[in-house]
Design goal:
The structure is a homodimer of 473-residue chains.
Chain A: E1 14-18, H1 22-33, E2 37-41, E3 60-62, H2 64-72, H3 76-83, E4 85-87, E5 89-93, E6 103-107, E7 116-119, H4 121-132, E8 138-141, E9 144-150, E10 155-160, E11 165-170, E12 173-176, H5 183-188, E13 195-210, E14 224-229, E15 234-239, E16 245-252, H6 253-258, H7 262-272, H8 276-280, H9 282-291, E17 295-303, E18 306-307, E19 311-313, H10 316-319, H11 328-345, H12 350-380, H13 386-401, H14 409-415, H15 420-472
Parallel strand pairs in A: 1-2, 1-12, 2-8, 5-14, 12-19
Antiparallel strand pairs in A: 3-7, 4-7, 5-6, 9-10, 10-11, 13-16, 13-17, 14-15, 15-16, 18-19
Helix pairs in contact in A: 1-4, 1-11, 2-11, 11-12, 12-15
């Protein structure tokens, strides 16, 4: 760790980043590139020097928004091309069984065949931390845990290491990139008019693993995110570069509790995931399942994202979401990009940049939090329904015919940089349009029926007239 | 303050109440009555020995739920009969002006003429604190600010007085009755699966005053809560025992900011509250308005209300609400009553009482938070609409005819002890019933029209037949 000069008043153009995870280290790069003196404080050890980091290990998927941020820093190629596994769609494993007929491939982008990338969280974090060190104006401080912030003087108190020694640090801007349980946000919550909600869903997750085959290959088609939708629960699998699969089981804590014996677990897998069971392996399943507890899933919304012109939160600290749209990291990276754009636009004037960031980012962040929640329902339940798959096909067909007018929700969220709230509104508009078309079609049908009845009645009414008339002629 | 024995392990049957406000002191009485050793910790001075307490000063209205709790402790008579000002309805001051014709009295209960009571928060708090002292097993500890709770050992750390001296205390049950910004709840938030939301509305409030008349009487009809509904903002007035009125102006912070000169303020009052302006007095209005800042209004929901079998939160700590249904204190008092009922039912077994309390209380508390939010809309806007006043009349008429079947929302919330969620569901059912009746009525009308058209067409169709026939006869 570089020596840290003792000072109390913040240097002008100094930025303190709290949190050395993905978004924190990316944010450090952005500010360093602009020439700020950047100090990054992380409460854990340097992960590049530890063997295993406990934490959120759900596999990450990188898509357009995240890639755009990496691209501006010249980091995209190294990460995506060399270390990502391309995914071109979902592979749905239907409840029926393991036969070939029980699989449906649902492409993400049937028109341009765009893909997302499965990538290891740890690898990505290591690359980004190393990227910060390429800037001479970045200093990394590990084992620094934020205890308090004095907003008036922009002074932070950190607990250093295990012992109870505390240090005071300051900066002209504090960036809270310290995740869903952000200490920076906890300090902000004391300010009046801070809107906040945290919601744990009733479901948790537990990670399992499918190893490579005996000849070192992928055990399933690797260009897909595999999904076993089972209505009230689901399992997914994401490929790793070493040909293994990270398998995640999502279900209610009650269901997890009910599977408390080896027999119950094997019966459950035999019934619901018969094709996955042999791939995971009975022994490994039992070991992995019973050695870990299911983890909770939280969704966090708050507003504003800044205090005055000196503190701001980004990434999960501002908008933690459930992982079902694969957008958590991408949204966090996009935060950094948007912040950088605003820094450009407002000539690095924090008093303008920060309020503008809160204003434009909040509605989009809340939209993706809602979309992520919705996507769980789509993935675990709707994917089972023929009407839903039909709608997907209709969306894709329209997208093929009028790609500028009809952008399906998944495409706009994953492959464009349109605001998330726009994507949501666009979907509402599409739903309305489809309902309107169906409505007009229904009306025409009704009109046809009414006209038919009218002519039928008319014919009947005319007939007796004639019947009466004819005999009298 | 009585001497406090040094001990670390909690005594069995000992209860620590955090917060000596209304709900805290009432809760202390309930536990003391059951024979528990009760220690009440309040971070302020003893309000009975201070001149003025800053804090939330919106006048309180006591209604059936609060009265029921006081009644069980034998406190109702002293408080209600001797110190409450009975309110029998709302008096609506229409925007038109100050003439007699511009007032509409809307009774709370036109059938049984039940009333609610306007009462001073401070007086009520003093009476309740004194009530706790009648139990020899209650000890009061002022200037004790909760800093932390160790949930495993049920140990609390308090900062005592101004200086930085801390003491450790413990109890077999900790009751957090420390208000909307509860320190107990802040500790609970760290536990997994704790649902939480805090929402500040865009509007704030500012208190003004109408003094008694020169001959010491009320300046307006005193049996009413006076309301000046103005669509996007409103003013209300509640009578005090000394014949003065506490006037509260509710509007958006932006509107408050816009009224930043004496002229703007007087123009605004002259335009919107011409009848109130002379009662408040120009000089007093200017002084009161510019000497205080508008205060924010917060709504808080969380779940569960307990941790294990040793910590529980009640009152605003569990469910702070906006003040528009006059139910904040009543709901808090009802919490104490329900907790007492459960203590009876489960033989004072905290491991059963606490989860049950969370389970049954949460849905009702969330319902009243929602209702309070809705009632702001009703009071400031709907009260202006003839259709709304007509619906009120319809509700009251039906209540008069079928009082067991048709209980209007306000009546059920204010004058019954039905769960708040039941009140809300009952209102939905009534809305549905009215819509259904209107729907059936509409269908009948449509049928009449269709039949009329049918016979009309039939007549026309028959006519030409006859026309053709007649000449040929």
């Amino acid at each position: 760790m570089p020596a840290f000069p003792a000072r109390l008043a913040p240097q002008p153009r100094s930025v303190a980043i709290v949190g050395g995870g993905l978004v924190g280290s990316l944010s450090a790069c952005f500010f360093a590139k602009r020439g700020f003196q950047v100090d990054l404080y992380e409460y854990r050890e340097d992960i590049r020097r530890t063997e295993h980091v406990r934490g959120r290990t759900i596999n990450l998927t990188l898509s357009a928004r995240g890639q755009a941020a990496l691209r501006r820093l010249g980091l995209e190629r190294a990460l995506v091309a060399e270390h990502g596994v391309a995914l071109r769609g979902r592979m749905v494993h239907h409840a029926a069984g393991a036969g070939a007929g029980a699989l449906t491939a649902v492409p993400y982008d049937p028109v341009d065949n765009q893909c997302i990338y499965s990538i290891s969280r740890r690898y990505l974090n290591e690359v980004l931390l190393t990227a910060t060190e390429k800037y001479p104006n970045v200093r990394l401080h590990f084992r620094h845990k934020l205890v308090a912030i004095n907003f008036k003087e922009n002074q932070m108190t950190f607990q250093v290491g295990e012992e109870n020694s505390q240090v005071q640090r300051s900066a002209s801007l504090v960036v809270g990139a310290d995740g869903a349980f952000s200490a920076v946000r906890r300090q902000m919550m004391k300010a009046p008019l801070f809107q906040y909600s945290q919601r744990y869903i009733e479901h948790g997750y537990l990670e399992l693993c499918i190893p490579p085959t005996a000849d070192g290959k992928f055990a399933m088609a690797e260009q897909y995110l595999h999904v076993w939708p089972r209505g009230s629960f689901m399992m997914i699998a994401l490929p790793n570069q070493d040909c293994s699969w990270t398998v995640t089981l999502f279900m209610s804590f009650k269901q997890f509790e009910a599977l408390d014996t080896t027999k119950a677990l094997l019966d459950f897998f035999g019934q619901h995931f018969p094709d996955a069971l042999p791939l995971i392996g009975t022994e490994r399943l039992i070991k992995d399942y019973f050695s870990t507890k299911p983890s909770p899933l939280i969704s966090i919304k708050c507003n504003p994202y800044h205090v005055g012109s000196s503190v701001i939160i980004v990434g999960d600290a501002a908008h933690a979401m459930v992982p079902f749209y694969g957008q958590g990291m991408n949204a966090g990276f996009e935060d950094c990009l948007i912040l950088d754009n605003l820094m450009q636009q407002y000539n690095e004037d924090f008093s303008k940049v920060l309020p503008k960031y809160s204003e434009i980012r909040n509605k989009d962040a809340e939209a993706i939090c809602d979309l992520a929640m919705y996507n769980y329902y789509e993935m675990r339940d709707l994917m089972n329904h023929k009407s839903f798959l039909l709608r997907k096909k209709l969306d894709n067909a329209l997208y093929q015919i009028i790609p500028k007018l009809w952008i399906p929700l998944y495409i706009s969220v994953t492959f464009t940089s349109e605001g998330y709230s726009w994507c949501l509104k666009n979907k509402y508009w599409q739903d309305k349009a489809i309902r309107a078309v169906l409505g007009v079609f229904g009306m025409i049908m009704l009109l046809v029926v009414v006209l038919f009845i009218f002519f039928f009645i008319h014919a009947i009414i005319e007939t007796p007239c004639k019947l009466f008339i004819v005999p009298e002629l």
